Amino acid sequence: MKDAQKPDHVSLNTLVNYLRDGRFVIPDFQREFEWKPWDIRDLMRSIFLDYYIGSLLLWKGKPENFSALSCEPVYGYQGDGKPEYIVLDGQLRLTAIYYAFLAPDVPLPNRSNRFFYFVHVDKFMKEEYDQAFEYEWLTRRWAKILANKEAQFAAHLFPFSVIGATGWELPNWVQGYETFWKAKATEAKSAGDQKATTLAQNHCDNAKAFGELLQGITGQYQISYIELDKELKVDKVCDIFTQINSRGIRLDVFDLINALLKPKGLQLKQMWRDAASRLDDVETEKMNVYILQVMSILRQGYCSPMYLYFLLPGQEKSVRDPDGTRRKEILIPDIAQFETRWNAAVDALEGAITV
Question: What is the CA radius of gyration of the chain?
């Protein structure tokens, strides 16, 4: 077994190319692709923010193994492909990446419509990450926008499918976006509109910075994987897969915040135990996280996991003021304030459930 496992990593660009070529196939014993539209969006956000998205477990396949495991292409893939890897772990992530970046002409499972994904460049460059990443189902209006680059430039919409396109599509899009707003700045300056000139020039500068960021994401963002040797027997590979999927323990942002609060003398798990009976009319495993998210909404207007970190007592958050300047702000100064806000969030949730 010493040569059976080969840890490695691959760039996003290379991974997308492999997906386009149909190199990944899914064994029949894997569950169906069931991600919701917002799950795919959240994965795109994680990639663009340079977050770790987990490792893939791949088995270098042989024709007889593709047949023995009744392997099928990634959801949405059309064509014969060049099967090379059997995906043992990571099917959902790979399929989401394929769907967002390659934009197959198929609806999502259990949906009647095809979806496409994009990022608002202006919001992303202002670090408004919760609002920057979006998806839409393909109506006639959105089909026209997808077919019209100037409409995309004007609305600051960068379709993720541009990354999956071949040739010079990506650099041409970035150059076109910059040229569009450079022309707008010149036009506004000629008209004597200083405010519009400044705004258009800011978009032009952002276009260049966004292009450099895209180059870094596609070329330098790394996805780790473990490759199992193709000579492994099918029964051993199936056993490895079973072991992986039977030992999982649900760890989420609540567990992380709890661990970070312990050195500060706060027992978050006990606080949750004390509150749980008041909120048990709703059947969910995530109510403890919902309390933290309500705390976050009430204090800073955001509730995605990346913002919950700033609920830690004494933790500084970088804030951008309307004039563009940055400053540091402590949202929750001490343990007593954390407990007060936790209790307020529990009260709010209990009230909502009662209503």
Answer: 24
